[in-house]
Amino acid sequence: MTVAVIIATGVTGGEPDPVPTAASPWGDDPDAPTLLTRLCEQLGTLNVPDVQIVTRPELAPLLRKDGHDVLECADPAADLAEIALLARRAGGPVLLLPGDLVISTELLARLVRDARDPATAITVPADEDCLNAARSGTARLDTARLDVPRPVRVAGGRVASAGSSRHRVTSPNAAFPGVLHVSRARTAEFAEIADKLAMLLEVPGTLPAPVAGTGDGAAMSPDDDPAQLLLVGLVRSGVPVASCADPALVCRRAAGPDAAASAAAAHEAVAAVDEDRVRLAAAVKSEDGFFATYAVSSYSPFLVRWAAGRGLTPNAVTCISMGVAVLAAIWFAAGTRTGMVAGALLFYLSFVFDCVDGQLARYTRCRSTLGAWLDAVFDRAKEYVVFAGLAVGATAAPPDSPVHAGNVWPLAVAALALQTVRHMVDFSYAARANVAGPAAPPVTPLTLPGDGAAAPSHKAPAGGAAARLSAATSKIRVLHWAKKIIILPIGERFALIAVTAALGNARITFAALLAWGWIAAVYTLTGRVMRSTAR
């Protein structure tokens, strides 16, 4: 079970009565729940009951008055030591959040329920002035308030470099608002990093001096943020940290000199977002095939919402898709034009359900290993049972019928064999790519102010001529879709079978599958050989 650690150390107002920013009201109503209360309620709805709140001794009475049990820590080093202790005790993943956080529930759910990487950090678009200051080397970045997210550099979906008040980022392109998820497998390593940072903070001169802190040689600075330091520690220790970002959802800190006004603005931003629609849109694959994108996904979200509202599971939809394909095969086997047209329509409907099951799994977060296996097996079975139905119908049709195609079993077997070989090549290539995995991030000492990286150049992507050509052509929309179509993905195969069967006969269908399948096989195999030899 996930353990959430909320760092509620930010203050608004000044001496002698500082007020925790986490105690700011959620919205314009002064009697509304506080930001911290709302955040705890959000975590409760996501089945994260184990919430630990870290705060300063002078802020603890106000937070306890608000109904929260808190852990008192005197400074950032103590925060980090406490986080290390909590991480070691955790029986599951660790979720780190600032107490003044305003976040869409859907975005928080993606961390709690969907994160599969060793670590995941939410990243948001950075303030352009802040990024320009970082790129030019000026000090504005280092003197930013805690409510201004620190910059990071994201590359290939991962955080390649992270910044804090003591650490600079080369060529930043995003920002980190302080929300971090660490998987169960990495909690021990996470605890060690937290302990190391706590020790370094306590010894003057071991970490780079904070630009906006207490001066050279000082141990700690008011700008030291545990979440920012921990992200720096993870990235510089070589732990892969995935970037989780969605501009359509809200993730900001209601801090700064006027936290109440900032919280009210954040409340309006959250209220303006239809999170269910965002989740539904995210359930549709962004890199699907041409036919799936335009002939199914343009309306399938409505079917997904309908299925979810009636309690259908993704596995149930997968079985329905298989059943509809069997009905299509039966109609194809009838050997009549009506049967061929009915079979084609049913086969298209089977593909619609095939798209809906995956979208429903992502929308409802009901993904399972069984479901993935069933989907892969039934995808193959649907094609092969239809092959059999077409072959039976080709001989069952009267000799004078245009549907009659004679003995096409050799063509059916050849099409089946070609498709089987293509699947074998696809799965084995993907398996080898997964075994290799992404390159581990370089290890950079925490004692260095810079990340040791050179500014990224605009070189062609690695991977040889095939990768360079692929990257160049993908920028041209027509060529982008042409590359997707030529490989004959499942949507195009189902469409090809349905159209040729409805308008022609089984011989035409198998001839088209074999011709296009060989072109797709040669194209795919050539590209993969070129990519593999270039590595």
Give your account of this protein's structure.
It is a single chain. By secondary structure, the protein is α/β, with parallel strands linked by helices. The protein folds into two domains: 3-279, Spore Coat Polysaccharide Biosynthesis Protein SpsA, Chain A, CATH 3.90.550.10; 283-434 and 459-534, CDP-alcohol phosphotransferase transmembrane (TM) domain (Four Helix Bundle (Hemerythrin (Met), subunit A)). The chain contains 19 helices and 14 strands. The protein has a seven-stranded mixed sheet with strand order 5-4-1-6-12-8-13, with helices on both faces. A three-stranded antiparallel sheet has the order 10-9-11. Strand 4, helix 2 (60-65) and strand 5 form a beta-alpha-beta unit. The longest helix has 29 residues, at 506-534. The model is unreliable at 137-146 and 213-217 (pLDDT under 50).
Number of strands: 14
CATH class of the largest domain: Alpha Beta
Rg, Cα atoms, Å? 28 Å
- What coarse outline follows from CA principal-axis ratios? elongated
Number of helices: 19
CATH architecture of the largest domain: Alpha-Beta Complex
**How much helix is in the residues?**
40-55%
User: Helices and strands: which structural class?
Assistant: alpha/beta
Adjacency order of strands in the biggest sheet: 5-4-1-6-12-8-13
Distance between the termini: 40 Å
CATH topology of the largest domain: Spore Coat Polysaccharide Biosynthesis Protein SpsA, Chain A
Superfamily (CATH H level) name of the largest domain: Spore Coat Polysaccharide Biosynthesis Protein SpsA, Chain A
Average predicted local confidence, pLDDT: 87
- Uncertain segments of ≥5 residues (pLDDT<50)? 137-146, 213-217
Q: How many structural domains are formed by the residues?
A: 2
Tell me what portion of residues adopts beta-strand conformation.
5-15%
